[in-house]
Amino acid sequence: MDPHLAEPEPSWQGEDPTRPDVAQAEDPFPGLRRMWTIAPVNHTPAGLWRLYRHRDVIRVLRELPAGVRRRDGTRAPGAMGGGGGAQEEGGTFMLQQDPPNHTRLRKLVSKAFTPRAIERWRPRTREITTELLEPAFEAGRIDVMEELALPLPSQLICEMLGVPVADRKLFTDWTTRGIHILRGQFLSPEERADVVDAIDHLAGYFTELIAERRGSLTDDLLSSMIRAEEEGDRLTQEELLVQSIGLLAAGFETTVGLIGLGAKNFARCPEAQAELRGEPGLIASAVEECLRFEGPIGMTTRVLHADAEFDGRVIPADTTVWLSLWSANRDPEFFDEPDRFDVRRDPNPHLAFGGGTHLCLGAHLARMETQEALGALVLGSTALEPEFETVEWGPSLFRVPATLPMRLRPS
């Protein structure tokens, strides 16, 4: 197709992110399958493009020249966190940087997130999980969100960072509000003011904590970042502050959603429970399927650094592209029976953690915590039954249930 020929009129195709839909919130996947079918390469009225097929999403993530900013280093409208007066809040966080800045920042903090470093936290994670679940097994019921999915990741990231666990309710609220900065141009003025207020509170809190920690370094992650040095390079005070806030936010809220969504799907699938109880070693495979089937992050963004053609349509360089991770992870051209929750699925090359340069730094931590949480929940019971028909969703930017009441039959 000649790239200079007239393009079809941009359209949301019925999937407008500025108009939330209750039915779509409960089950977004039929709408995504519709987009995969009728408009897999979609030019929107906001000027950004959306891609829905696995082959297109993975091409942008791993093959094409692309990043999270324009080629000149400026923020692009429609990109996560871009396109508005508050877009530079948290702008030095590594996930909002391209190489070489991203490479430098990631090197300085990544040692704490290697598989070996994360495995050292597994015994403590198991200990916390056991303590959290003991009252639920005695009572025969649980609100998974309140009693497991929220307290486990928030307590663990507190301990890892050296943040007082007693303060976790404060930062849970600030983080849930502040993370909406990623909506960028789609924030209303009132929402933007709330986001900035939350970020200001987080910044003030961590400024005091960093000052306190500098005078008494320990072996926690915050102390490691203060000490961090790579070939003579160190984090500036601003970079240290922003990485601390960013890691706190990235380190628990999406994992809260992953544990909750995994529990929801296990509760609705007794066959999957039975398979895991019969073969506990499937827990790692089961968590990968939780990530593919319904992960907490539905989409990510990239900014193209060169013109790219999809289905004969040319998307220009410096254009923001929204990549539907949910749609890609249920692509019937890539996955057999994509709408079936299959804890034995192998191989399972899902894209829940994104890909390429910006592959999620906390992937190992999220996997480990979810393996321990869901393994203990399912294996510690002979039945896990939902006490809800539809899910009440929380205020998070991500897919995080507000409450998930369930019945338990202890084993």
CATH class: Mainly Alpha
Structural class: alpha+beta
Report the CATH superfamily: Cytochrome P450
Please give the order of strands in the largest beta sheet.
1-2-8-5-3
Biggest sheet statistics: 5 strands, mixed
Q: What is the rounded Rg?
A: 21 Å
Order of helices and strands: HHEEHEHHHEHHHHHHHHEEEEHHEEEE
Number of domains: 1
The overall strand count is 12
Looking at the structure, what is the overall shape? Answer: globular
Total number of helices: 16
Per DSSP, what share of the residues sits in E-state strands of 2 or more residues?
5-15%
> Averaging pLDDT over every residue, what do you get?
90
Task: Give the fraction of residues assigned to helices.
Answer: 40-55%
CATH architecture assignment name: Orthogonal Bundle
Return residue spans where pLDDT drops below 50 for at least 5 consecutive residues. Answer: 1-6, 83-90
Distance linking N and C termini:
62 Å
Query: What is the CATH topology assignment?
Result: Cytochrome p450
